[in-house]
């Protein structure tokens, strides 16, 4: 901070929590998480390119209990960022700015991302146990 | 701007914000976002379909021409979009200039390395007989 004596505009803590704040903060948080997750994607591709042994090692690490928990988190982050990203693109086009639409689309992003995450993992677990 | 410059000042200023790049960052973030909608959904389908497969099968699937092409497109677009997004986060929260510049450089270098590594890996998989 350059000069903290300046008067500051009220920040997050003075506002009552509402879903629009949650969806906005989550968009940024999941974006950061996904940026870190991109390294996992590259790691997987490198392991696959490197040969059978390295790939088996990668699968063991990613398929471990901690790995699965992280993967579930990353998959939800991806679905949330995807849903809310589409929502933001719609808003960039100038639509959906009425307060009730804004609130509804916030909840929609959260709900759809959770449903998609659940569907993917139910499918993965049903088709053959843990990764 | 000198007196010799025949262009109207508005012509020089138009489209340029305080960062000298106008809406380029904003627009590129949206373009990569739109591209990542189909690419991201496709990527999830590929990963889920490979969740229980062995090395040989996963290798063969990634090596298919269309899959290799789309994977490279996905990796490049993903890192590009990530750099743009993280840049905004750094600009918002890191208020000491040299620290912000250090973060931005580190993010860019890491993203370029990641993108190159990803492309190299896909090419190696695709071109290995």
Summarize the structure.
Chain A is an all-alpha fold and 131 residues long.
Poorly predicted segments of chain A: none
Q: Helicity of chain A, in percent?
A: over 70%
Question: What is the H-and-E element order of chain A?
Answer: HHHH
CATH topology of chain A: 3 helical TM bundles of succinate and fumarate reductases
Could you report the average pLDDT of chain A, rounded to the nearest whole number?
91
Distance between the termini of chain A: 47 Å
DSSP helical segment count of chain A:
4
Main beta sheet strand tally, sense and closure of chain A: none
Number of domains of chain B: 1
CATH superfamily of chain A: Fumarate reductase/succinate dehydrogenase, transmembrane subunit
In percent terms, what proportion of residues of chain A is strand? under 5%
Biggest protein-protein interface? Answer: A-B, 33 and 34 residues
Q: What's the N-to-C terminus distance of chain B?
A: 60 Å
> Unreliable stretches of chain B, pLDDT < 50, 5 or more residues?
none
Can you give a write-up of this model?
The complex is a heterodimer of chains A (131) and B (129). Chain A contains 4 helices and no strands. Chain A starts with 18 loop residues before the first helix and ends in a 5-residue tail after the last helix. In chain A, helix 1 runs antiparallel to helix 2 and helix 1 runs parallel beside helix 4. Chain A is mainly alpha-helical. The model of chain A has no long low-confidence stretch (mean pLDDT 91). Chain A has a single domain, classed as Fumarate reductase/succinate dehydrogenase, transmembrane subunit (3 helical TM bundles of succinate and fumarate reductases, Up-down Bundle). Chain B is mainly alpha-helical and 129 residues long. Chain B has one domain: 3 helical TM bundles of succinate and fumarate reductases (Up-down Bundle). In chain B, 78% of the residues lie in helices and 0% in strands. In chain B, helix 2 crosses helix 4. The model of chain B has no long low-confidence stretch (mean pLDDT 91). Classes of the chains: A mainly alpha (131), B mainly alpha (129). At the A-B interface, helix 1, helix 2, helix 3 and helix 4 of A face helix 2, helix 3, helix 4 and helix 5 of B.
